[in-house]
Amino acid sequence: MNWNEALRILHPQRPEPALPVRVAPRAGALHRAHAPSICVASGKGGTGKSVVSASLAALWAEQGRALLIDADLGVGNAHLMQSVQPKLTLVDVVRGRATAAEALTVCGPRLDLLAGGSGVSQMASLSAAELSRIARGIEDLDGQYDALVVDSAAGISEQTIAFAAAADMVLIVTTSDPTAMTDAYAFLKVLFARRRDSHASLIVNRTVEVDEGPRTAGRIESVCQRFLGRGVHYLGCLPEDRAVVKSVAQRQCVINAAPQSPAAIALRELRGRIAEELNTLSHLGLGRSLEACCAGVTRRV
Question: pTM of the prediction?
Answer without folding.
Answer: 0.88
